[in-house]
Design brief:
TIM Barrel, 8-stranded parallel beta barrel, 10 strands, binds zinc ion
Length: 427
């Protein structure tokens, strides 16, 4: 019988229970291809200035992303200029340009000096018949010609099977085989409309890799909230690349978020991609500001609420040991822990918060102050600013006629009265 008491834990403190399927996670190096500048910018209503695009490319390179999908050269104008500029910045990352399966598109991209070419072509019948108004034979012929042309110019070629997740598997294999025969370096499995779920995703990707021998990249959308889960499922099945965006920016509900993928790999799967995660919040702030958005408070990994604790039980736990309610430390992603005083706070939180302002309070007084804190928060319809808590404390002393030093240990009394006086002045 299996020993259920001595199962090893992952970095998140969870037992590493066996998977129901064979996993290739960690067998081969996993690489990140960031498409903030292409799919991210395709988000409805988002446009980056060229200066912002260059800054974003530099940041992505500095934090250690392997490849940067810089945009679509065939759009011409500013887009073409900035891709050329990014390709000549001397970054460590490979610079990839997006193309249709068109020799003209590819020629324009080659003219920008990129070292990698993505050739995108829809493979699902609905796209082939209603969008392209072509047939499967045309798709196979087009991808062969496009890949062969790009490979003649000695660039890395990613073949993007658009709407792969709705493509008949037999045809997807034919498409992949045709691209491979012309020298394609990898196949991008595009869950273009975000309809995969991890178990089926695993099966399809496993089959694709076994049948074609091509490297596979996961391009997953978040329409059902499963972009990251599907990307991880692909990696378990043997995919080696993940296409991500900062903050999950991208068409509709967005793409797999860079921060979520990196931290999930590190903490849940035990795979460290050697990315400078300490800059995650800074990079997310920059990209979102450039996109005219903000990083929402409840965003996984980089949202400010990740390390904000209000409820009494949680705050007490975190004060005693952060690992009670946090998987990793806030500085690891460039955030700070916040203990929030509000309706759900407990007296321990009040004690701790006042200590930050040099005010020592007895446990009994903190318990007496607690109902006032709660009703103030309800009245304001929000949590309290630190200054409001300190004011409430002083009001409490007056209205309750309390001597704050009664009950405090003697050595704390003197310190408490001087610090409290200082805190009052400082206000
Ligand atoms: Zn996409």
């Amino acid at each position: 019988m299996k020993d259920l008491h001595n199962i090893p834990e992952n970095a998140a403190g969870q037992m590493v229970w066996e998977l129901p399927v064979a996993s290739k996670m960690g067998d081969l190096p996993i690489k990140l291809d960031d498409t903030t500048l292409r799919d991210g910018e395709q988000t409805a209503g988002v446009v980056f200035s060229n200066e912002e695009k260059v800054n974003i490319a530099r940041m992505l390179d500095e934090i250690g992303v392997d490849q940067i999908e810089a945009g679509i050269p065939t759009m011409g104008g500013d887009e073409c200029e900035v891709i050329e500029e990014i390709a000549h910045l001397g970054l460590n990352a490979s610079i990839l340009a997006w193309n249709r399966a068109s020799l003209d598109d590819i020629k324009t991209s080659l003219g920008c000096g990129v070292d990698a070419i993505a050739i995108s072509l829809a493979t699902s019948d609905i796209h082939i018949e209603t969008k392209l108004r072509k047939d499967r034979a045309w798709v196979l012929d087009s991808i062969r010609k496009a890949v062969a042309f790009a490979k003649e110019h000695n660039v890395y070629v990613s073949v993007n099977a658009e709407d792969a997740s709705r493509t008949e598997l037999g045809f997807l294999l034919e498409f992949a085989a045709a691209a491979k025969a012309e020298g394609a370096d990898r196949l991008r499995f595009c869950d273009t409309i975000g309809i995969m779920e991890p178990f089926r995703c695993y099966s399809i990707v496993k089959h694709l890799i076994e049948e074609t021998g091509l490297e596979v990249e996961m391009h997953t959308h978040n329409d059902f909230g499963m972009a990251v889960a599907n990307a991880l499922a692909g990696l378990h099945a043997g995919a080696t690349w993940i296409n991500v965006t900062v903050g999950g920016l991208g068409e509709r509900a967005g793409n797999a978020a860079l921060e979520e993928v990196v931290m999930a790999l590190k903490y849940l799967e035990g795979v460290d991609l050697d990315i400078d995660t300490k800059r995650f919040r800074e990079v997310a702030d920059y990209v979102m500001q450039a996109a005219g958005r903000t990083v929402s408070a409840w965003k996984p990994i980089v949202g400010s609420n990740m390390f904000a604790h209000e409820s009494g039980i949680h705050a007490d736990g975190v004060i005693k040991n952060p690992k009670t309610y946090e998987v990793f430390s806030p500085d690891e992603v460039g955030l700070e822990r916040q203990i929030v005083v509000g309706k759900h706070s407990g007296s321990k939180t009040i004690e701790m918060k006042l200590t930050e302002f040099g005010i020592a309070i007895t446990r009994e007084h903190a318990a007496d102050l607690l109902p006032l804190v709660r009703s103030k928060a309800v009245g304001l319809n929000r949590s309290l600013f630190d200054k409001e808590l300190v004011e409430l404390y002083h009001e409490f002393l007056v209205t309750a006629g309390v001597d704050p030093t009664v009950g405090l240990p003697t050595d704390t009394k003197a310190a408490a009265s001087t610090k409290a006086a200082k805190a009052e002045k400082a206000e």
